[in-house]
Amino acid sequence: MSLFQLPEVDWVCLKESEGEIKETVRPRPEPIVGHEKKRQEKVWKIKKEKPAIPPEDILVYREAAVIDQFRSWSSCTVPMTVVANKEIYADGHERIWLLIDTKDVKDLQEARKQYHLRIAIEERYRQIKCFSDLTKFTSRAFSMVVNQVIFTMLAYNLLQLHLLGEKRKELNQKTLPHIRQSYQWRDLRITIRSFIIRTIMPCSDPLGLFSS
Predict the structure, then answer these.
(1) How far from the centroid of its chain's Cα atoms is residue 100's Cα?
(2) Which structural domain, as residue segments, surrounds residue 156?
């Protein structure tokens, strides 16, 4: 960290990213609306009962600085870029953590965003393993294992593409049980069926396998 204390290193104040504006979605079923209202009331009540946040836990602002062509790591044969992230809290203490990359970093804010993508990636792996039956193999035969993995991933990707096309991006991070609760499952099944016909089976359906 001593290199980042040099006068030629510029620390940049990072602005908080604005929240994504959610587009209007289709009306939710009445039971879901009632359940969500009760949940929000309970969350608000719990927040009011909580004690005030201590100053050492209140983040005031963030700063970042970058040093490129970093070669002091002898086991790495290519130059590295080191991004130092500083978080300043209300009581005055600072928390510093580093990001190391082999590519040139031009946008410090974008570097932070890319790092936090790992959280979403790990969550996707958890969903596939725990809620999409990826690890519940019914046969020891290698061909059957491969078949299950391929079709599980295919079904997962089709569902993600459908939610994205229906402008329900907020559901991409949810588990299958949650999606079933917040989505009209019958409409989802029909839409995915038509999506398969249009993309995977562009020809007609002579056997009537996907007909109503």
Answers:
(1) 21
(2) 132-199
